[in-house]
Amino acid sequence: MAALEALINAPEFTVSELSSALKRTVEDAYGHVRVRGEISGFRGPHSSGHCYFALKDESAKIEAVIWKGVHSRMRFKPQEGLEVIATGKLTTYPGSSKYQIVIEAIEPAGVGALMALMEERKKKLAAEGLFDEARKQLLPWLPEVIGVVTSPTGAVIRDILHRLEDRFPRRVLVWPVKVQGEGSAEQVAAAIRGFNALPAGGRIPRPDLLIVARGGGSLEDLWSFNEEIVVRAAAESMIPLISAVGHETDITLIDFAADKRAPTPTAAAEMAVPVRSELFVEVTAMARRAMLCWQRAQEGRRSELRAAARALPAAGELLAIPRQRLDGASASLPRALKANTHLHFRHFAGVSARLTVRVLRGQLTQARHRLTVSGERMTHSARTLLRNRRDRFSGLEIRLKASKLANAQAQRNAIARDRERVARLAERARRALATATQRLQARVAHSGQLLGALSYRSVLARGFALVRDEQGRAVRAAAGVGPGARLDLEFSDGRVAATADADRPAAKGPAKPASDEPKPAAPKRTAKPVDQGSLF
Predict the structure, then answer these.
(1) In angstroms, how far is the first alpha carbon of the chain from the final one?
(2) Which of 269-273, 320-324, 398-402, 501-505 has the lowest mean pLDDT?
């Protein structure tokens, strides 16, 4: 009873709550794991781009998923039956109550898996015919330009250049690429296709021979040259290609697709060009042999000519038989001419016997009858044709009249519409002109009012005066006016000339004792009114 009560008192979970709790537990306990197993149930990427399969071993299986973005960045793609080491995050899928691993990286489990993958890929590409001998091209005997696809910093390019310099110097174009690691396969394939895309006679010369080279290394290091993109680029190359990847014991798939395989990069350089010094010796020997052969041939022909000259008969003996045949033909020619003339005469007599007046009259009657029948048929045809043409022209005339009426009515309608439109536009233009004129008049009036308000003449009208000197310049201060200066005073109703008596009051002298004598009156001075100030 106590156990039953304990179960009854246990908290209740919904299915979603329980699934979420299990999901958090699994993800917290197994954040990132590495799992080794065999790929099972892989049928290629889903239509969405995601991959769904399982990893299994002898006694267990776990579901796996690779998202689309991760799959596109993977160097090794999953394949059915391949043993791999997968790195990812363990999680659950509530929709089917199962746990699964979301894979972030995948790699083959050891060299054996790589060899199996390589063999499977080799069979697939061989089935497509990429390794057929019929596709192989012959290497040029002495290429002018050699294209090399390799790393620019390794010892491979130095060995190739040094070997070419020793044997037969040629122009070399190097396409620098990565030969190991992420993106190296794409760079090698792009370099092969790039050399093939160069136009003949362009600024950059098109190579006559390609060398794809890399030094030795492990199977993982050389794996870029086993990728399909590299093998297909080598098979599609229209330029003869030598594969020089690794050492003599290293085998990659590009070796089968290339036109020639070299055990080492140095051997590839030896295959590309002959030895120049040996060529000089061989050419000299061949020239000597050719001269000896020519001399012997000339001596043999000279001997044959002498023997043939001795064996030839005389000219009279050669012409005796043709001369005899000519004499016989000239003797039988008169008789043949007579016989031919008699034969033709008999043939002419037989033909003239059959050609009588009755026959000629019958032929003339038949010809006259045919001519009459032909004339009647021609007259009937001409009348029929004329009737058809007359009917056709009548129909065309009716259509033309109808078209003219319709066109004239359409033109009248168009002219009426254009007249109405011109009237509307003229009315709008008249209203717009009146509105613009009113606006301009208002603007001119406003500007006149503003000009009158800002003009100094309105200030003069209020009782002020404008003072100018003899040069007509405005006087702005009393200090600028000397004694006896001629001034011009401008009022609102006219101008008045004036003369300045003094520019400033007399200076005060020393104090004198007071006296009862009256002080002399100060001279009168014409001064500016107190309320008359300067406008400036």
Answers:
(1) 117
(2) 501-505
CA-closest candidate to residue 146, choices 174, 127, 165, 114:
174
Q: What CATH number is associated with residue 224?
A: 3.40.50.261
Q: Determine if residue 491 is left, alpha or beta; phi over 0 gives left, psi from -120 to 50 gives alpha, anything else beta.
A: beta
Strands 98-108 and 83-93, by their bridges, are antiparallel
Inside any domain, residue 177: yes
CA-wise closest residue to 59 among 87, 81, 37, 82: 37
The DSSP result for 380-403, as a single string, is HHHHHHHHHHHHHHHHHHHHHHHH
Same domain, yes or no, for 18 and 142?
no
**Same domain (yes/no): 9, 75:** yes
Q: How many CB atoms lie within 10 A of CB 39?
A: 20
Same domain assignment for residues 267 and 200? yes
- Burial pattern 488-499, b for ≥16 Cβ within 10 A else e, equals ebbeeeeeeeee
Confidence band for 517, pLDDT divided at 50, 70 and 90: very low
Distance CA 317, CA 229 (A): 82
Following CA atoms 299, 300, 303, 308 in sequence, which dihedral angle do they give, to the nearest 10 degrees? -140
Q: Based on the domain organization, do 209 and 260 belong to the same domain?
A: yes
49: enclosing H helix or E strand: none
Q: Is the pLDDT of residue 262 over 60?
A: yes
Query: What is the torsion angle, in degrees rounded to the nearest 10, for the CA atoms of residue 54, residue 57, residue 59 and residue 61?
Result: -10
Can you tell me whether residue 52 is helix, strand or coil? strand
* CA distances to 146, 151, 167, 251 from 263, in Å: 18, 18, 18, 9
Structure confidence by residue, pLDDT tens digits, 9-64? 667 667 676 667 677 766 666 767 888 888 888 888 888 888 989 888 888 888 89
Q: How many CA atoms lie within 13 A of 218 on its CB side?
A: 7
CATH number at residue 22: 2.40.50.140
> How many C-beta atoms lie closer than 10 Å to residue 165's C-beta?
12
CA 116 – CA 122 distance, rounded (Å): 10
Give the closest residue to 224 by CA, choosing from 176, 171, 177: 177
Rounded Cα distance between 493 and 461, Å, is: 8
Its domain, for residue 297, covers 277-306
Based on the fold, state whether residues 146 and 208 are members of the same structural domain: yes
Q: Is residue 53 helix, strand or coil?
A: strand
**Which is higher by pLDDT, 349 or 311?**
349
- What total number of domains does the chain contain? 4
Residue type, 394: S
Candidates 463, 469, 468, 528; CA nearest to 491 is: 463
Query: Is residue 165 located within the same domain as residue 28?
Result: no
Please indicate, yes or no, whether the overall pTM of this predicted structure exceeds 0.85: no
